[in-house]
Amino acid sequence: MRLGSTTLASAADTITVDSLEAKKHLMVQIHTIPSGAILPTMRFNNDSGSNYALRYNSDESSETTQTSQTSIQLDPIAGSFNQFHTMSIINEATKEKLLINEMNGANTAGAGNAPRRSENVAKWANTSNAITRVDILNSGSGDFAAGTTLKVYGAD
User: Fold this and answer.
1) What is the DSSP track for 1-22?
2) Which of 14, 46, 83, 98 is in Cβ range 3.0-4.6 Å of 32 for a Cys bridge?
3) Closest residue by Cα to residue 74 from 18, 144, 23, 4
């Protein structure tokens, strides 16, 4: 069941879906359209504390680990290309929230250029609240363009 969705009407550095019903299983889909170089990150429930940890690789690179972060880095390389993210999240209020994210990035246009990809696993170390808000933030030098979309689905 779709719990919430937001599509940007104009360029911005943040896209939010809030007032979500707490569900045990979440699926989040993000389609970012860049205006300049973007570097998407994610936060839950407006928590900007150092409560996130992740492990990722990008385009078959070696694995990187980040701990005590203020957000979850969704793609480690800033770029000016469309990205599509799909993530699964276990969302139990009394446990750390665990997620798996898969990203496909358009890369340079044309069939002669392979798409980019990154995978990461992450956690939000909050054990007292279920996720009821998702923010996607841009820390790159550009913006998310109009049409960038964030959708959140949930089930128990």
Assistant:
1) -EEEEEE-SS-BSEEEE-SPPP
2) 83
3) 144
